[in-house]
Amino acid sequence: MDLEDKKLDAEVKMRRTLLAAERWLSKKGVLSVGKVFTVGIFILLVLGPILYLLLQIIISWDDINSTVFNDPILGNEAFLMMMRSIGLSLKIAAIVTVFDIIVGVPIAWILARYNFRGKNILDTLVDMPMAVPTSALGFSIYLFWGTNNGISKLFNSEVGLVSQGTLLIILAHVAFTFPYVTRSIKGIISDLDLNLEKAGRTLGASPFTIARMISLPLVKEGLLAGIVLAFTRSLGETGATLIVSGVYQTAPVVIVSWMKGLKIPTTAFLAFMLIIISLTLLTLVRLFARKVGLPWNKVFPRFERKLSSKPVTRTRDGVSLFLFLIFVFVPALFVIVFLFQWWGGSPFSGDPQAGMIYQVFQAPDQKITDITNALVTSIEIALIVTLINVIIATPMAFFISKMKNKKLKGFLDLLIDIPLVIPSSALGFSIFFLWGSNGMHILSPGFMMIIVAHVSFTYSYCVRPLIGSFDAIPTMYDEAATSFGASKFTAFRKVTFPFLKSGLIAAAIMTFTRSMSETGATIICMGVERTIPVLLVDFFEASTFPAAAFAATILIVISFLLLLLLRFFSRRKRNE
Amino acid sequence: MSDIRFQHVTKIFGRKVEAVKDLSFIINDGEYVSLIGPSGCGKTTALRLLAGTILPTKGQIFFDDKHMENVSIQDRNIGFVFQHFAIFPHMTVWENVAYGPTVRGRHKKDIESLVENALKSVQISSKAELYPPTLSAPDWQKTALARVLASEARILLLDEPLGALDQKIREEFQVFLRDLVKREKLTAIHVTHDQAEALTISDKVAVMNKGELIQLGSPTDLIYNPNHIFTSFFVGESDFLEGVVINDEEKESEVKIGQSIIRTHNTGVSKGKRVAVAVRREFFQLEKITKDADKITNNYINGTIIQDQFLGLLRRVRVRLENQQIIEAKIHAKYPIHFNENESVKVGFDSSLSRCFDYPKEGIIAALEM
User: Using the beta-carbon criterion (under 8 Å), do B103 and A200 form an inter-chain contact?
Assistant: First the structure.
């Protein structure tokens, strides 16, 4: 009895201490310090490198002027090359975005509006290219279109159907950017009030007219946001592009290759230009998305009615699904087929030394050790990055969600999106620039710098869904808890946090996935360690395709599992 | 001409759920008809069948003798007003109203005059250039109506159109809506859960239950002349006194309830039958039993007061009759009498205001199940 009393006493004491601590943390002054700290970390990790890069460009303009525009030997050749690569990147991104809309919008409509068996599977498959590392995806797409193992087998051709270059880059980019378009409008379409469409019908409009005049304007903002993401992602992608580009160098690829040649000033300037382009796009869309009108109010009742007829809509659905299958699904997963083709030896010559088993497990260079090491490194990095981001992103998300000043909130919201849109190689470079020997000289390229870079570009992936989760929690619970005497912190721990749990897990998985799959920034910030997407690029460059296929398959399987986990938790969140 | 005819219309959802069963009725051109009934009675299904968002499983629907089976929603030329109005949020009031004629490919001049007239008709011209999110619910309501007018619909379908408005504005809109329909010579079908609204606004009211049409009649018919036990139960409040017919004459019957004999309106029940006498709670008269006064001389049952509760304009008095049945009388506040618990009273009513129905075989409660 005595002992139990003491136990209870201790329990009460501990609880009181905790509550007192939380009360102290809830003090206005302490909370303000916390807010400043939260924003400070965001600025240091995410904005800092970019700002530092801009600053350095201005400070050492002379240096840049002499290397970029007036090199004693090359003249302004570096600048011309930058312009060419940026031009190519922009051209590719524009074409890719058009295809993204053609494929992505009908699929979003199908997923939001139709009920059919296998809808869940299609939904997962559509999301998959976002989760799979782009280098694996790019490699798979290259194997399918660009070598004699894939599509050209159908035509009995000795060479690939599409050689490395612009077309192949476009094919690869469409595969992993169209889900941004689909995802950004699918939710909005399924949330649209169906009565609006019914009202349109009773007023005499055909389904096509309604989709054009009522539904589309209502998803416009989401669609534009998705288009910006798709465009900037294509503009800034490195991993897949390194594999499929050949001699055609897009801007991020140029950053990587100049960085390897340690041409710091020119790289800095190119990174700067890419960042400026992406930021301009993001800001413009944020500012004007609402104002962009769709001025086409003329209606062609007969023609549009024909477009609404069953044969036409069925054809449209069929075509978009077919495009998805042939341009995304099959090429993205072809690497697995390739792996089995080359399992024990070359399918052409039968040479066992060309097969996967020999290359990975038996050859003297012991690729399996490299793969295991890279995989462990990748997972370590992703875990640490996820942990850090969950810790620093949760207060930020809470802060933004509860913010009352709308203008400031909008501004912070815009800042949060920056890492989403700027090319990761440019971001990686600015981190190298700030933290490395050219800046604060705290880190040298290697494990720690990769972590800093990954924290930086995954930050948005973590904060964004958390803001959504916080927004979805009704404030009444919090208010009720406070009215019973809980301090703000206690209310958060006891009431808000349990609501947040699955949202937090979803954000963590997103962060983990993104960190696992990144290539561009990693190449720039790494030392001797390889992450697995980078190792894949190395294998590709060394032409050991079966080994690369082995690594790619591992990556695809891991990302697929992560994606299933993510769906499980996001669904639970919705049910809550 | 826009009359509407339902011929044996049945709608089955899934395999078994009969939302509407063998529905047959005619709505004449220019009539304002309300559909009322408990939730799930099929009134909304009937409206959707009219609109064409769903098709009948069996039976036919005619507009002016034209069979509607193969006429799609956009060609039925109906105006649908939704409970939450479904105003397009990204278009101004003017653009909303112009939507109908625009998508039907009308000429610009026609569109302009149609819109101007519609806006004028609902008195919202001053807000034509505003966007719906900046407006209030009554203005959305007006926009929704103007949108229907401009599309030149002759049949107006209203799904709980006043449900989203405050009580006071709702009452104003009842008058507004009826005036509008009559002025524009439309045929209106109005679904509502608010009986008072239906009785106020309509030429005819259809009472539905479990997918069947119970009674289609004028508002006064439903109150004074219910022809089905469900009508007197659902429209307003009634009590059902159980008894046996002991005498049936041309206009009145005599029914024995417990030890008392009362007279009721003869609705065709015959002598010796077990019946339920329906009396509206507002139609009961209560009188204290005193030695000198005997106002309800001839048609009453004795009872004992259980409770007398003040409700504002009415008082609700619960009385146990001598046959142990409990009834509730609603006494208008203009009779400032208060009854005490266990006081003896006479419970009377005007025989012509009561109705006598065959006692349902399955019992009263089962018969009135919704």
Answer: yes
